[in-house]
Amino acid sequence: MLKRIEITNYHGFQNPVILDFSGTKNYSYSKDLIKNGLVKNSIVFGRNGSGKSSLCLAVMDITLHLLDRQKDRALQHPYSFVGNNDLRVGFRYIFQFGKRELIYYYEKTAPMSLSYEEISVNGKKILVHNYTDESENFICIQGAKQLKTNGLQPELSCVKYVYNNTIHSDNSELAMMMNFVGGMLYFRSLREGNEYIGFKLGGDNLDDIILRNNKLSEFSDFLKTFGLKYSLIPIRLPNGISMIGIKFDNNRVVSFEEIASSGTQALKLFYCWLLDFPKLTFLVIDEFDAFYDYETAGAVLNLINSFENMQSLVTTHNVTLLSTRFTRPDCAYLIDKHGVVSLSKRINRDLRKGNNIEKMYREGEFSMDEEE
């Protein structure tokens, strides 16, 4: 599981940012949101411009150079903090695999241009690679000592190169990290359509995903759980493209795309990715409820939380989700000029299940401004 991530000089973050999943409390409720002492399901609240989208992209940065997966979205913005002349961006990912803690630190000057990589396991370094000064580079990984890594171009990760050119058991630290990163997915349900980072490469038409996998009936049942009762049928356009159609009582048929609202379209996108949730290790959804009403947002959030082996991070503006029905104080984070801090660390008293956390938030009880 991902235990902690530290981000330096990235995008809109002037100061270092830490997202810590290890600061859990001994709450007696919603215990399924915690796994192995770490936050399994997190939700980040913040105002416009607070950095929620930057945080999501930062969490996924590790996938850009370690995987040959979808990454276009992550390449479309300034990489380092624009107010700083130093182009080096630093990331420290801390993973917890049983009793082993793996720390992967790297620096880049661009999304696909590495300048430094380092891996340690339980405090012992097993790989160091400096792309500009190779005098102290070393690898202490089984089967990798004979690899020639000097002269690697910044676009080729030494970690990725070592992993692809050595044989690993599934229990090796490097394999465990790479398998975790391979199961990371980011997507968002805005007007850009099926825009995502990680997990796989290439895009599929959403209707085709549902029809090809014979999931039309299941998709119909999924929509019914949100009060959307449609008679869905497959249709074929004159150009031969198959689509999902809606059949009305008068036997008239129109395409799903023609009449589905933005919220319903967002549910279709969510459903298509939902089919892959059992394979994921870490899910990131930016503005997950951008087109959802409160009840739909809560139901979607609970559905995400129900996957036992998948960590998740979702962002939202909707403070009505600050309810113990959906989260708990050590799993809910606020992002602002003070960083990304859980509610449980923003207040000096115990929070019980019966507390109205939304009201407390609106009244400023989680503000840290008075401490300045």
Q: Low-confidence parts lasting 5 or more residues at pLDDT below 50?
A: none
Order of helices and strands: EEEEEHHEEEEEHHEEHHEEEHHEHEEEH
Number of helices: 10
How far apart the termini lie comes to 34 Å
Main beta sheet strand tally, sense and closure: 7 strands, antiparallel
Number of strands: 19
The shape is: globular
Average pLDDT works out at 90
Strand arrangement within the widest β-sheet reads 2-1-6-7-8-9-10
**Rg on CA atoms, Å:** 22 Å
> What structural class do you assign from the helix and strand content?
alpha+beta
Strand content: 25-35%
Portion in helices = 10-25%
Key traits:
10 helices; 7-stranded antiparallel sheet; alpha+beta; 372 residues; 7-stranded mixed sheet
List the helices and strands and how they pair.
Layout: E1 2-8, E2 17-20, E3 34-35, E4 38-39, E5 41-45, H1 52-59, H2 61-66, E6 89-97, E7 100-110, E8 113-121, E9 124-130, E10 138-139, H3 158-164, H4 173-182, E11 184-188, E12 195-198, H5 206-212, H6 216-224, E13 232-236, E14 242-247, E15 253-255, H7 256-259, H8 262-274, E16 282-286, H9 294-305, E17 311-316, E18 332-336, E19 339-342, H10 357-362
Parallel strand pairs: 5-17, 5-18, 11-16, 16-17
Antiparallel strand pairs: 1-2, 1-6, 3-4, 6-7, 7-8, 8-9, 9-10, 11-12, 13-14, 14-15, 18-19
